[in-house]
TrEMBL record, chains A, B:
Entry protein name: HTH-type transcriptional regulator
Entry GO MF terms: DNA binding; DNA-binding transcription factor activity
Keywords, in A-Z order: DNA-binding, Transcription, Transcription regulation
UniProt-listed Pfam families: MarR_2
DNA sequence: CTGAATTTTCAGAAATTTCTGAAATTCTTG
DNA sequence: CAAGAATTTCAGAAATTTCTGAAAATTCAG
């Protein structure tokens, strides 16, 4: 691996982080390399840059394609495949979130739902179901929010973020209105 | 492993998911088991429930403690340690987020900052730095937002989520005001 | 202090994941 | 369709991670 030291540091760190997130080290390194490369790279170039076997590169690229994380490029009169990453980091994040949701969150929700349908046969099971119900609600809330927010264009998303917890002030207002409304409705009934 | 079938399904799924997120299967299973148990469990009980060695339980519990994910409990006149999880799922999520940030995000930010300080020695390095800069900005934005939001109590956080992208309407307004301001300022200059 | 109960440690075994080289396949072009 | 360039596949090797049993350490009651 003889990359510019600055690039090498990035690639190695990324490989390290990848493996802490359940992504294989090599896949992480390849992604990092593609991410910082000024031009799309072909498999051979990745092999040379990272000092890994050609077949490993092939399998790792397949993996990255399955995750929708890389773009395929071609040069006229050259039948090799060249790989690159999207330019927009926000887009990359969105793709990552989308894929993880599809692979991990959705199946978890359906397992939870299935379990929650069953009839508890003991007090322990009843309690377990109750706990799983709480988890189910949490995940549903998060994914609903995510489905909402993922539609936003980058510019607007950035704005939403920069607003941060300042939204709380708005919430305070809403909060008061809602509770006022509740009080009124309650007193009307009486 | 002879748990109620409903609990077993949950525990196994959780172990599976854990390993996809870089958490060892056993650690995930133990956490799931503690999460749904009506009472705190001692190491011996976990050993029996999950059919793993006592030493494995000991090490996995140590791991969970390092992640601040479990609570230690004692019974009077019994010197065994009993383990449980917090009741509030939101609190669990917060802890998880906090720990991952501390272990993975913060180090990444500091690696990026360090690399960005260096002087690029080539065009390729200049480009790589530019890309890393974009990633750095993204992560900074996300963590700033996170630092903001993590303070919120559960009730308010849930409200923020339920609001979701409806906040966009507010943003639209802000957006218009901002761009109006820009137009005015520009025309004043001319 | 002794000894029983409990927990921790850790070297090596077992299991799992990752990686490689060689062969097979695909694709293009003359 | 033959040849050559590029890619993919996959069985087994290598590396890494996880797990265990045995021994050591800790804790506490008597």
């Amino acid at each position: 691996m003889d990359l510019p030291p600055l690039v090498q540091a990035f690639v190695l760190h990324f490989g390290e982080m990848g493996s802490r997130w359940g992504i294989n080290r090599t896949v992480g390194q390849i992604y990092a390399l593609l991410y910082v490369s000024p031009e799309p790279l072909c498999a051979e170039e990745i092999t040379d840059a990272l000092d890994i076997s050609r077949s490993n590169v092939s399998m790792s690229l397949k993996e990255l394609q399955a995750w929708n994380l890389v773009l395929l490029r071609h040069r006229p009169g050259d039948r090799r495949d060249f790989y690159t990453t999207p330019d927009d980091v926000w887009q990359i994040l969105r793709t990552l979130a989308e894929e993880r949701k599809k692979r991990e969150v959705d199946p978890t929700l359906s397992v939870l739902r299935e379990i929650l349908m069953q009839k508890p046969a003991s007090e322990a099971e009843r309690h377990a179901q109750q706990r799983m119900g709480e988890m189910h609600v949490l995940i549903e809330q998060l994914t609903t929010w995510y489905d909402d927010v993922k539609q936003l264009e980058t510019r607007r998303l950035a704005m939403l973020l920069s607003l941060g917890a300042k939204v709380t002030k708005l919430l305070d207002t809403k909060d008061k209105i809602v509770s006022l409304g509740r009080v009124r409705r309650t007193s009307e009934k009486e």
